[in-house]
Amino acid sequence: MDTRSAILEHAERAARQKGHNGFSFGHIARDVGIRKASMFHHFPTKPDLLVAVFARYSQRFYGWFDGMDQSKANGATRLAAYLAETRATIEDGESICLSIALCVDRDALNEQLIDDVKEFQARNMIWLTEAFARGQVDGSVSGISDPESEAMACLAQVDGAIVMSRLHKDTSYFDRALAQLRLRLS
């Protein structure tokens, strides 16, 4: 792994575990095994680093969305896969989704990063709305009246379940918080 990629990897992990304000260039440099001054060669400021970290993180999710879209899976299968993918961000309660970590520190973010996080949430909403709409049409998800409202509720429920799991360092909180939704998937 090259130095830039290692910096991004360590910074993402730090932000997901400790939040935006929970790490410094010095911490990341030490973890990567470089001098702190070398960090500035790759990223002039911490906001520049966070923009790059979030771009990398969101592109992985967008790629996952694209892969699911190509799979032609029914609505329930898509939603179950989304729940599994988001659950993986918890890492046994040691971590949270990067977008949640950044939302918590919103006032410390630059406008570009705020816009990027809003775009990430919007893309999640679009994808979830389409998954609920597909589940409504193919009958694989019960009780859908409005796919967009379902998507908003699902995103809020997932994000809340991630935060609860992090607080308790226990992924069972995620599973229990989403149990009722899972029952609706056939």
**CATH second-level architecture:** Orthogonal Bundle
What is the string of helix and strand elements? HHHHHHHHHH
Distance between the termini: 42 Å
Number of helices: 10
Give the fraction of residues assigned to helices.
Answer: over 70%
CATH superfamily descriptor: Tetracycline Repressor, domain 2
> Which sheet architecture does the biggest sheet show?
none
At the first level of CATH, what is the class?
Mainly Alpha
Assign the CATH topology: Tetracycline Repressor, domain 2
**Overall number of structural domains:** 1
Q: Stretches where pLDDT falls below 50 for ≥5 residues?
A: none
Structural class: mainly alpha
Instruction: Evaluate the radius of gyration.
Output: 18 Å
**Beta-strand percentage range:** under 5%
What shape does the CA trace take? elongated
Number of β-strand runs: 0
Mean pLDDT: 95
What does this structure look like?
This protein has 186 residues and is an all-alpha fold. The chain has one domain: Orthogonal Bundle (Tetracycline Repressor, domain 2), CATH 1.10.357.10. 74% of the residues lie in helices and 0% in strands. The chain has ten helices and no strands. The chain has helices at residues 3-18, 25-32, 36-42, 46-71, 75-87, 98-104, 111-138, 147-168, 172-177, 179-183. Helix 1 (3-18) packs across helix 4 and helix 7 packs across helix 8 (147-168). The termini are far apart.
